[in-house]
Amino acid sequence: MSPARWGLAVPGIAAVCLASGCQEGRQVGWDQPPPGTAEVQVDSATAARNATLEPGVLTTVQTLPVVRWKGPGGRPFEVGRRSAAPEAGYTRLFGTITLPIALRSRAASLNQYPCTSCHQGQKIVMENKRIGDAHQNIKPVHPDQTGAICSTCHSPDDVEVLTLKSGEHARLDESYRLCAQCHFSQADAWAGGAHGKRLDGWEGRRVVMACADCHDPHKPAVPTLIPFRAPQLERTRGHAP
Amino acid sequence: MSADPAPGLPPGADDGTLLQKPVDRREALGLLLAGVAAGAAAAGACTPLTAATPDERELKLLEWEEFTQKHYRRMTEEERAETVARLERLAKLRYNEDATIATTDAQPGVLFGYAFNISKCKGYRRCVEACINENNLDRHQDTQYIRIFEMENGVVNLEEADATYQHEVPMEGHFYLGAQCFQCANPPCVPVCPVGATWQEPDGIVVIDYNWCVGCRACMAACPYWARRFNWSAPEVPPEEVNPNQHYLGNRHRKKGCVEKCTFCIHRTRQGRLPACAEACPTGARVFGNLLDPDSEIRWVLANKTVFRLKEELATEPRFWYFAD
Predict the structure, then answer these.
(1) Where do the DSSP E strands lie in A36-189?
(2) Residues B110 and B92 in one domain
(3) CB 3.0 to 4.6 Å from A177: which of A61, A96, A170, B167, for a disulfide?
(4) How confident is the model at residue A15, as a pLDDT?
């Protein structure tokens, strides 16, 4: 959605809220750190060396313990929290240069987050079609291919919660619980370490990215990009590779 | 002279082939050159050429000392500290940079291994970019440790692979395979070195003492993977882009005429961090870990995926495996 549209939509929704008398009725603050959240220094050596790093460059990332899946050897592991500090953990300092590592721009993908910025606590009734202008930025490639609708994954009762086939709810940070319902072999590889991206070092605690940190859930294929420049082999090559 | 290791060796220091040389020629040469230097200094003091600043005189002296320093594996702890302090001072004098050069040893019980997912790599070359920045690679010569090969689906054919593609990736019907130094368990580059300037560390990393390398490039000819790079000129890195977090055996300043290679980012991995390429990879195609830890990700990949290595028939035993989903 363009900013201009936002300008129109937000006062409109606010007006509806005021008219219907809806209030701050949310029971759970989904943007608050839940129990079990830990902050881990994922790049401590860099952070220590660059104590005066500009804000926004990685220092810490909040994590959530992974439920149901265990890492290699039955070890527990953690996922980085998606809804906390949109860019935290997703840029890295190499030498003196900061590079992003994400395939998706999290800030852009979270431009309507938290949902309460529009949905002020009222229950959302999701229908089997998309209504209005609110989520035109979403291209539902994956739902369209699988015949899914919004409420297949998003809980109709609470927009900031995912709903699982078992009837349980999962946080937006816990996309792996939702995706693994169909993509179980990928989830096993993810828990083992062959799929997905590890955020901290190779030893100690294991913090990984969750499914939706790389894959847009509505359009999961990774994008095409222009690669970093090619080597100038004619000047450096010693003999045939 | 006896074949016993020289006295004063640090615990765990190498007592291999290098130490069997009956005469320490470097030391003899050092004494000789120190005499020449003293003579030259005396001569210099008598001439009207007094334009040299104290910094320039210090630089000359340190350069003599650098030229006559010992092999890294023969240094005692004190000598290592002296050498590193000298190199840091030289970096300040030569390039005006405040580098920190570590000499961190291998952790006991650690053997590094790498796995590369050829179905996840999309050819973005973000690893190459991070490697250049992290390892202070020569921008003039455009040195790159990592090559990403683009190949048509169906067969691994490196002869017809394209390592210099420059178009939007991933390309339909193609896959990508990255190659760098594989830190072979049986490295053919090590025994060919005539001066013992390259060796394998206990954690499996094959390293080079850049000050001991004579630039004969025999190791480059011996490597079947073209993993080593030669400095035809003094490496050029813009001062503001120099990574000050360095290791003696890793990304410190190289000189003209020495060989360098990927060290699995020795300055990072010996601190428990991931190599820069693994950390920069946006698709998670790179798995790095300790082969001696049965609960590591790398061991999970080796146990649960079908893996292969390049040119297995050469028995170089690379510690770098490829797998697909």
Answers:
(1) 38-41, 60-65, 78-80, 91-94, 97-100, 161-163, 169-171
(2) no
(3) A170
(4) 38
